[in-house]
Design a protein that fits this description.
By secondary structure, this protein is α/β, with parallel strands linked by helices. It contains seven helices and 24 strands. The chain folds into two domains: about 220 residues, Spore Coat Polysaccharide Biosynthesis Protein SpsA, Chain A; about 90 residues, UDP N-Acetylglucosamine Acyltransferase, domain 1 (3 Solenoid), CATH 2.160.10. The radius of gyration is 23 Å and the shape is elongated.
Length: about 350
């Protein structure tokens, strides 16, 4: 893993979001979607990361103050291929490059690890992550030959009617030999409907040069969902909520109406705790063993000790709840109610 650098593409504006804020800064399940991608890369064991920034580059950089990464500025958004080319210097000491988009918050560490193993086992120059969609509209289609080798990727706007019927699509995650990657990118021109340098063109170049190009076909399309609209933002949020609640329930937490319960990642919740519908727990909170969190409770930066009961519709901020304490159904803020503070 020490010879792999991750390039995360985070320079775009995201016009379909209809927002003045850079797309990668939109929050999904309590943190910017770009943070989810960085967390996944680190959890996969990839220590070196370059983030390509452009639109609102200062705000994006500021949001990443808690991360270790190399910032790469793409002053003009001239396409994904150009964005990767901007990161060449940041990748100088790596043999292999993994390329991801900053708007794919659902990708899992295990998926990246499996792709890396596949790439090495197949001795590939280039491995593409792909998946199958019932409705592939808007995605680049994977073109293969009779030997199951990838011969190219065709974007939706450049595809023929027959190519648009292909259900296997480009998931936008690449593992590629560094030397080949940057040599190939310098050969690509903006000869397409968008007038941009397409990163996807490296597949056709590799094929023409006789390099091994393989696919890593991911069976679960939701994991590679790219967030391009508010609708997809909501879908990603719901999926991360489902994953988080499944993890907690398997660890011994009871949830009634888990589809209405939101507990941010990293918040510990002890076994035998019961959580009722409409609960939201965020910030640096923690919940002990055997607690009862009643309906409609909101907790932010709260420490809930073992066996505590939080009454329905309570809203607590920065609050320590003592062992076996009962918080009656009401709203508490220590700064607003100093006489009630423990």
């Amino acid at each position: 893993m020490n010879t792999i650098t991750a390039i995360i593409l985070a320079a775009g504006k995201g016009t379909r979001m209809k927002s003045s804020q850079a797309k990668v800064l939109h929050e999904v399940f309590f943190k910017p979607m770009l943070h989810h991608v960085l967390d996944t890369v680190k959890a996969a064991g990839i220590e070196k990361t370059a983030v390509v920034i452009g639109h609102q580059h200062e705000r994006v950089s500021q949001s990443l103050s808690g991360y270790t990464f190399t910032p790469v500025r793409q002053a003009e958004q001239l396409g994904t291929g150009h964005a990767v080319l901007c990161a060449e210097e940041a990748c100088a000491n790596s043999e292999t490059i993994i390329i991801l988009c900053g708007d794919t918050p659902l990708i899992r560490p295990a998926t990246l690890q499996a792709m890396i193993s596949h790439h090495r086992d197949m001795n590939s120059t280039l491995t593409l992550m792909t998946t199958l969609l019932a409705d592939p509209f808007g995605y680049g289609r994977i073109i293969i030959n009779a030997n199951e080798q990838v011969t190219g990727i065709v974007e939706e706007k450049d595809a023929t009617p027959d190519q648009r019927k292909i259900r296997e699509i480009n998931a936008g995650i690449y593992l590629v030999d560094r030397q080949f990657l940057f040599t190939a990118l310098r050969q690509i021109g903006p000869d397409n409907s968008q007038g941009e340098v397409y990163l996807t063109d490296i597949a056709a170049i590799a094929n023409r040069q006789g390099h091994t190009v393989n696919r890593f076909i991911h069976p679960d399309p939701v994991d590679v969902l790219g967030v391009n609209s508010r609708v997809e933002l909501a879908q990603a949020h719901t999926e991360l909520q489902r994953r988080r609640n499944t993890e907690l329930m398997l660890s011994g937490v009871t949830m009634y109406g888990p589809e209405t319960i939101y507990i941010a990642q990293g918040i510990p919740v002890g076994p035998d705790t019961i959580i009722n519908p409409g609960v939201q727990i965020t910030g640096s909170s923690s919940v002990g063993i055997g607690c009862l969190i009643e309906t409609g409770v909101a907790l932010h930066n709260c420490t809930i000790a073992n066996n505590a009961i939080i009454g329905a519709w309570s809203y607590l901020i920065n609050w320590p709840v003592q062992p076996s304490e009962y918080i009656a159904p009401r709203t508490f803020r220590p700064e607003d109610h100093p006489q009630d503070a423990p």
